[in-house]
Design brief:
The complex is a heterotrimer of chains A (158), B (247) and C (231). Chain A contains three helices and nine strands, in the order H-E-H-E-E-E-E-E-E-H-E-E. Helices cover 27% and strands 27% of the residues of chain A. Chain A has helices spanning 3-30, 40-44, 131-140, and strands spanning 37-38, 54-60, 66-67, 74-79, 84-89, 102-109, 115-122, 149-150, 153-154. Chain A folds into two domains: 1-32; 37-154, OB fold (Dihydrolipoamide Acetyltransferase, E2P) (Beta Barrel). Chain B is built from eight helices and no strands. Chain B has helices spanning 2-8, 11-43, 57-84, 87-119, 127-148, 152-180, 199-231, 236-243. Classes of the chains: A alpha+beta (158), B mainly alpha (247), C mainly alpha (231). At the A-C interface, helix 1 of A face helix 1 and helix 11 of C.
């Protein structure tokens, strides 16, 4: 082998080594919970300690929304169909917020195990259909669950 | 193989083909636009949750789709230009930049208009919005670099390198902002378990996609003709065409 | 001579030359660091000295300032080598241009990136960052500024023949550095919120490895274009 070719071979193998190392490091990174996204089940299981800021995703439990009469303070329950976490929020809710709808809340746990949100985001889902179809599906009990996916996590279907 | 490329990659031949087919593609695109808009804005039913507002997807989704498609076309033709020095590939890349940037801009504007009623805000620093914005910056950088280098040959090669570097970065940018902040709904149409959209709404969307795609091809063909004339302005085939009045 | 020692010799020769040149004009080399320190100190003056607020924006502010300081230093990275013909000699030398470019980038990082990294804990203290985050800040900048050097050098090589290419360089490099900024500032943010920054840091490390492997090819290709157009 000529020296030039050998040089090229060394450089190419160094390059491949670099790429392989990059892939390995990316895999390591994915093993971490990068999104800091947790479901109510994680919270109930004690995966997050109070004071740590994270994002909580789930569906608003029907009939759980309690609004204060003298302020914008609102309290509601969030579920992933397994466990329930109570969320407190002291600001104006987005228009798409309603019971049974999927939301993402950012905030932290207080010492009572309630989630104090600093921000609530409503997600509109990826399903598009005419109202009649939606009504028919609802009747047949086949309505696709509204809050099916959040980022990389999928909530448990009932 | 190379003979084939030589024939079909030669500017006079491509010019002739482009001139022959581009009007038809333009007309086809117009028809699809009219049909798709009628189907989408008039015939398709309102959405069960978003009402009439969702109809903006008939512009937003095709524009967003095309913004990425055009960038990929640009990057692939840049790579072909760098590796095989095929000048025509550079004409394709150059002619795609402005329209790609326009699609990106359109996707951003319509997304913003859609965000107002559904998310309650004109602009949300959401993953897809942000990466679309970065994509717009990449297009603008490409055009700026091309314009800044005086020597046309160097401008073409430098811009091609930038386009290739950019295409490696797009998935990384997309992933990073996705991880950073995501509010956008997951993909509706390209999913493993089939599209999650009612057929009456899906058909107009596909028609509009076809319309946008054909419009891009039409624009590309017309712009490529101008690019080829500019590049080969001293070549014989151009002067023959000019003298024969067959421009 | 053995091929690998030959490669190492090329790399170290260029690196030593570059370091010697930069020591000869060390005052100029300090400018990015000064810029970094000054812009960061502008924030308390502009936003107000409230400690809690400063701590909240500190990771982002320090990272953005580091990014801009790196960007400023990149302008003209290859300009003097182009002017005096060194670049042409490198291209004609028959030695791998990507390796020479890598040595050049390493020296640039030692000259500008490393001082920023060393200064960053001090700025973190000024911005009221909790002490626990300072090491993460420095590590994230250590990895991140190296990626910025590598990616930025592609931009510097592309704008080689552009007159006053500084603004154009920013236009090209800033969109590409979005992920570095997100993961870098994200790592510090994570530690500030009592979470592990391991994910972000390993992504930055992955970026270093990928950029080390791929960016020199891009720089070399761009330099060849610049030299070929040599008026």
């Amino acid at each position: 082998m000529t020296p030039k070719r050998k040089q090229r071979l060394i450089l190419v193998s160094l390059m491949l080594f670099g790429c392989a190392a990059a892939v390995g490091l990316i895999i390591t990174a994915f093993k971490q919970n990068l999104e800091h996204f947790h479901s109510p089940a994680d919270v109930v299981a004690g995966a997050v300690s109070p004071g740590t800021r994270f994002r909580l995703g789930g569906m608003v439990v029907d009939g759980s929304v309690v609004r204060a009469t003298d302020s914008v303070n609102v309290q509601f329950d969030l579920t992933d169909n397994r466990d329930v976490v109570t969320v407190q929020f002291d600001d104006i809710l987005p228009d798409l917020f309603r019971e049974g709808q999927g939301i993402v809340a950012k905030g932290q746990l207080n010492n009572d195990g309630d989630f104090v949100a600093s921000e609530v985001l409503a997600k509109h889902d990826e399903n598009y259909m005419p109202p009649e179809v939606a009504a028919a599906l609802e009747k047949a009990g086949q309505m696709p669950s509204t809050a099916a996916t959040f980022g990389s996590k999928t909530l448990v279907d009932p | 193989m190379f003979k084939w490329i030589h024939k079909f990659g030669s500017p006079p031949f491509v010019y002739g083909v482009s001139k022959a087919i581009s009007p038809w593609i333009g007309v086809a695109s117009l028809i699809l636009f009219a049909w798709g808009l009628y189907m989408g804005l008039v015939k398709a039913p309102p959405d069960y949750e978003q009402g009439e507002v969702y109809r903006i997807i008939y512009v937003h989704v095709p524009a967003a789709w095309m913004s990425m498609f055009v960038y990929v076309v640009m990057a692939i033709s840049s790579a072909i230009f760098i590796i095989w020095r095929l000048k025509l590939a550079d004409v394709v890349a150059e002619s795609s930049a402005l329209i790609g940037a326009s699609f990106t801009f359109l996707a951003l504007v319509t997304g913003s208009i859609w965000g107002r009623p559904t998310w309650g805000t004109w602009w949300e620093w959401d993953a897809r919005l942000t990466s679309e914005l970065v994509l717009l910056f990449l297009y603008l950088g490409y055009m700026a670099l091309r314009a800044a280098i005086e020597h046309p040959q160097s401008a073409a090669r430098a811009a091609a390198i930038l386009a290739i570097v950019g295409v490696i970065n797009i998935p990384i940018i997309h992933f990073s902002v996705e991880w950073w902040n995501s509010l956008h709904q997951p993909a509706t149409i390209t999913r493993a378990d089939g599209p999650k959209m009612h057929i009456s709404m899906l058909i107009p969307l596909f028609i509009m996609l076809g319309a946008f795609q054909l419009y891009y091809f039409h624009h590309l063909l017309v712009k490529m003709r101008a690019g080829m004339l500019m590049r080969d302005r001293r070549a014989r085939w151009v002067s023959e065409r000019v003298e024969g009045g067959r421009l | 001579m053995k091929a690998n020692t030959e490669l190492f010799r090329v790399f170290s020769t260029v690196l030593r030359r570059e370091m010697r040149v930069s020591f000869a004009s060390w005052g100029e080399g300090l400018n990015p660091l000064l810029f970094f320190v000054m812009v960061v100190t502008l924030f308390p003056l502009g936003v107000g000295p409230e400690a809690k607020q400063l701590a909240a924006i500190a990771p982002g502010v320090i990272w953005v300032c580091a990014l801009l300081a790196m960007l400023m230093s990149l302008d003209g990275l290859f300009a003097s080598d182009h002017r005096d013909g060194t670049l042409e000699q490198w291209v004609l030398s028959g030695q791998p241009l990507s390796l020479i470019a890598l040595a050049k980038v390493c020296s640039h990082w030692l000259r500008t990136g490393l001082p920023l990294v060393l200064m960053s804990p001090l700025l973190g203290v000024l911005m009221n960052l909790p002490a626990a985050t300072l090491s993460t800040l420095a590590i994230s900048l250590l990895l991140g500024t190296f990626i910025l050097s590598l990616v930025g050098a592609i931009g510097a090589a592309l704008t080689l023949t552009v007159k006053q290419g500084g603004v154009l360089l920013a236009l090209l490099v800033l969109p590409l550095s979005v992920p570095v900024l997100i993961f870098g500032a994200g790592a510090v943010q994570a530690v500030a919120e009592q979470r592990s920054a391991l994910g972000q840091l390993s992504l930055l490390a992955a970026g270093v490895m990928a950029a080390l492997a791929l960016a020199p090819i891009g720089i070399a290709a761009a330099l060849r274009v610049g030299v070929a157009s040599g008026d």
